[in-house]
Amino acid sequence: AQKVTQAQTEISVVEKEDVTLDCVYETRDTTYYLFWYKQPPSGELVFLIRRNSFDEQNEISGRYSWNFQKSTSSFNFTITASQVVDSAVYFCALSETGGGNKLTFGTGTQLKVEL
Amino acid sequence: EAGVVQSPRYKIIEKKQPVAFWCNPISGHNTLYWYRQNLGQGPELLIRYENEEAVDDSQLPKDRFSAERLKGVDSTLKIQPAELGDSAVYLCASSPPIIGLAAAEQFFGPGTRLTVL
Known about the structure:
The complex is a heterodimer.
Chain A: E1 3-5, E2 10-14, E3 19-21, E4 24-26, E5 32-39, E6 46-52, E7 59-61, E8 64-69, E9 74-79, E10 88-96, E11 104-105, E12 109-114
Parallel strand pairs in A: 2-12
Antiparallel strand pairs in A: 1-4, 3-9, 5-6, 5-10, 7-8, 8-9, 10-11, 10-12
Chain B: E1 5-7, E2 10-13, E3 19-24, E4 31-37, E5 44-50, E6 53-56, E7 65-68, E8 75-79, E9 88-95, E10 107-108, E11 112-116
């Protein structure tokens, strides 16, 4: 069975600090997809990134970067120079191929960025 | 382009009452999902539709929950009768057709926050 663990329940940082959100996953499949979603206070989940299991290249998008390491089953998310608008709950999710695009979410990490 | 639309945004009912949630997916998205998100948890899939067919309803509590997507577009999720433990946010999502074994991005609506008293 697939499982996603986000051990950090809540993180508080001061604006402009860098912050890394951890995600560890479990799956028996050799082919799978990993996602990160952002859930601001408004409640709507916003897609951030999708990565397939064959692509271990790190990715950078503006202040966001992702580090995928199959050896440790981790898909960590770093925000550089955090801003107050980054305050939200961030979810890591896993989708196994052949699973009909079913997403298994972690429990989320609440990020609070303060001035 | 309009996103996933859900209504109502909030609903407060007494236990044993029925309740229904409505979702209109993004145009052209043939796959529709209903998730339930309990406080402090990630969303959990209740049911997935491919067009008008429910292809995964293994997590749907069928004794009290039902769903339909009659014309393969909008969908309704119903609970009857509601219990205290049903208090949660009910999220609808949609995705475009899946190509091969790829996993399509899911677009989520704002959700319906249900409170059962």
